[in-house]
Design a protein that fits this description.
The structure holds two protein chains of two kinds. By secondary structure, chain A is mainly alpha-helical. The longest helix of chain A is centred in the last third of the chain and has 33 residues. By secondary structure, chain B is an alpha/beta fold. Chain B has two domains: 259 residues, P-loop containing nucleotide triphosphate hydrolases (Rossmann fold, 3-Layer(aba) Sandwich), CATH 3.40.50.300; 128 residues, Coagulation Factor XIII, Chain A, domain 1 (Distorted Sandwich). The longest helix of chain B is centred in the middle third of the chain and has 17 residues. The chains are: A mainly alpha, B alpha/beta. At the A-B interface, helix 1, strand 1, helix 2, helix 5 and helix 7 of A face strand 1, helix 2, helix 3, strand 4 and helix 4 of B. Strand 1 of chain A pairs antiparallel with strand 4 of chain B.
Chain lengths: 304, 429
Amino acid sequence: MRQKSQRNSTQDKVSKQTQGAAKRPIRVVHRPESSMRHPLQLFKNMGRDLLASRELAWRLMVRDISAQYRQSFLGFLWAVIPAVVLAATFTFAKNGGVVNIGNTDIPYPAYVMFSMTLWQTFVESLLGPIQAVAAAKAMVAKISFPREALVIAKLGEVFFNFGVKLILIIGLFIWFQIPVTWNLILAPVALIHLIILGTSIGMFLAPASALYQDFSKGITLATSFWLFLTPVVYPVPTDGVFGSIVKLNPVTPLLVTTRELATTGVISNPQGFWIASLIGILGLLIAWVIYRLSMPYIVERISS
Amino acid sequence: MMSINEQEISEKPQNNDSEVVLSVNGVSKRFCRDLKKSLFYGVQDIASEVLGLREKGDKLRPKEFWALDNVSFQLRRGEALGLVGKNGSGKSTLLRVIAGLIKPDTGFVEVNGRIAPLIALGAGFNPILTGRENIYANMSILGLSKKEIDERFDEVVEFAEIGDAIDSPVQTYSSGMAARLGFASAIHTDPEILLVDEVLAVGDANFKAKCFRKLQKLRENKTSFILVNHNPQAILSACDSAVYLSKGKLIINDKTLAVIQKYEEDLFQSSITQKSIVSMFLPQKLESETFGINITSLFFRNKEGNMIDSLVTGECINFCVGCKAYKRFEKINLHLTITELGGEAGIVLFLSGANDQHFFEMLPGEHEIQVQMPYLSLKSGTYSMTIKLKRELYTFETIENFIFSVKSDSTMSNCMFYQPRKWQIISST
């Protein structure tokens, strides 16, 4: 029934026709075949959409941030409350001897609060793409806009929230009189790598969790478990099975390096840092391709 | 207006080819109504897309059907195309493929220019934010830069008739206001192609008229659009050509009038095949399957009490509902809702025993409730009746879509309904 052989020939003809009227800027062809078959075109489109989504991402970010704080009494405080509560709990538990935690480079409450802030930023960047797709389902199903904008808007929100948290951190550093070195300037680089890793995981999971609810449930569970495999409330363990599991966790070197650059200025595991960064960056590119390619199929299945 | 459109078309042919803004070529799309399967196929499709295996999907997998089946047509610059078809005929799917939201399974769609989908009225509105903020967010989703939005902002607010409420949260708006704001921001994006999907059903009559005027103006500025509407009249007045889809297949693509005629013929045809049902006898049910009473038959009797198989306007008829009661019930009453098929009027008659304060008592056994109509006032046509057997809010049984047709003689040709009358002369001499 479907004329396969004719397809290509008609396609060429139509293309020639429209080239004649090349005044119009936008010409798009929607074809059934996989975009992976034309990788160059795919990368060109990815770059184009990334550029095209700047302004939209900004709008979406402004929209989300202002909506988020408008219907809230404590507002910006919510960015720092979890870190403060966790630090208070663990300091209390440690002093009471309930948990046995080794000594840290900097005062323990500051250690937990600072690490927790970094961890939270990582989790926010991981959940960002997933939440963005879930929240924008209706929009995604009805309007074709660069899907990248959703992720970028969320990234903006992550940075914005981190900015709020920064006030807490600066306060901490002054209060506990933590010495800093010139390496502090490099800390944002490590932080960005941490966010890249989170975003790549989030982007990778976003399409699947739009289809199956199991993912969003599982992710909540996984992140809370993951927190305890990351040196957030305890210093980096050096030995034992637990120690090696924590070392294999890609978040560990990124988070620890960020913390070290901001405080002592001595990087304990530069090799691990670069390996984890590489995983994050490569992962982000792959996840981006998957995210982009799967969107039409998500729309097809979630809307009717 | 029609004659002007036809002139335009006949003038075009020389540069027809370069004027094509949208061409749909042999597009098919398969769908699945089983949710679990559908999600699984989604994962399958994503996997083959990412691995680059997917070329096209021209085979149906289990439980799938063609939502669109080899559809082709073209849209030229400044042309308005109507899309008609019953619910589920694939109209929305087609618009989605055109808008690039979903990929076709076979064939391809070529688009020249920016598409504004009006299927998306107010998508991306955040109820907490003000109208102003939402206009900026919504219009940038539709692809405009801040500068472009700034230029259009006042026009949008004026068109939407929002006034001072523009700085209040959208959640305080009435549904009409929100819809107007959505329409205004979508239509002011100056697209080359507009996809209008039944959205004109929102808003009051004045605003609807305003929307149609705006569409007309856009068309004069060479915007093309595709209009989906259940109301053939709207398509007739706004479009020069139309496409009729049925079960995903393109039945006809021609001048609007021809397409609408074919569409209405089909609507009528499907009712003609059922026309012979002027009586209906339902299979016996077990007592456990009923709610105490069930309807066993539906038919008409004439004045003499004989069953009849044709209805004529103006005659005295009895509509009879045979039922069987298994227990004693009081306050039984009957609701009849009559709709004209293929008409625009919707419900033409609603008769309710409760409204008329006519209740019956039923003892176990068989009964026949009769609705006596001294004059059948329906004009000729095919009607669908819904019958409900009720006691207060409790419904024993509902029979939907009991189809019957009414004939009438030439005296009814200019009438909407039958008026019983007597002519006489009173003279004083």
